[in-house]
Amino acid sequence: MTGRLCWISVVFLSIAALCSARETVCLKTGFCLEADSHSQEKDSVLCYIGAGTLEIPAAQISTIEGTSDDPGPGAKSRLKEGAPTIEEVIRRAAIEQGLPADFVTSVAKVESGMRPQAISVRGAVGLMQLMPATGADLGVNPQGERDNARGGAKYLRTLLLKYQGDSVLALAAYNAGPNAVSKFGGVPPYEETRRYVVKVLREYERQQKRHTQTGPTERP
Predict the structure, then answer these.
(1) Which residue among the candidates 23, 111, 145, 203 is catalytic per the annotation?
(2) How far is CA 60 from CA 30, 32, 177, in A?
(3) Could you give all domains of the chain from N- to C-terminal order, each with its CATH number?
(4) Active site annotation includes 65
(5) I need a labelling partner for 62 at 20 to 30 A (CA). Which of 6, 110, 162, 184 fits?
């Protein structure tokens, strides 16, 4: 495990500059997607997502906003209604699966910015960005935020058990799939996957620092 942590340190130092905050690009139709960054060329906007690029006509875009750590006004309003916030939904799902709540929360932040309505260009949906087929395998409805959180936490637990608690491999498999991890005998040499692992681990470290005064450090 020490060697793997050293590897992560090297990767972190080499690609930290690429790990910028994600953006939320919303179209006038109401559809939103997550991107790492964007640029504009004439009448089109190029959204950079991992190693790929998606071109969207500028006239179809409503807003482009940086994804913040704040889950948004929708989550805050739940407090007034007596319903659990998005963060609470995720933490409960983590506890049900026996996982550190900060770890699952970190995955949700990187995957969707804690947005239940997030949809990726590949068709992954919800807080934990589950593919419909993955949701079906897990017995959950990805469209429902509680089911989505429960399914994502359950899938993370399955991967952590598969890789004997190795969070790096579990995160790589969550992003690229277990078959890719098996094919390369470790973290796949995909820029998107390596950036993803670093982003989640960095967010997890930040989450832990926030809670240093509330109890012992959690570990996945």
Answers:
(1) 111
(2) 10, 11, 32
(3) 2-16+71-210 (1.10.530.10), 22-66 (2.30.30)
(4) no
(5) 110
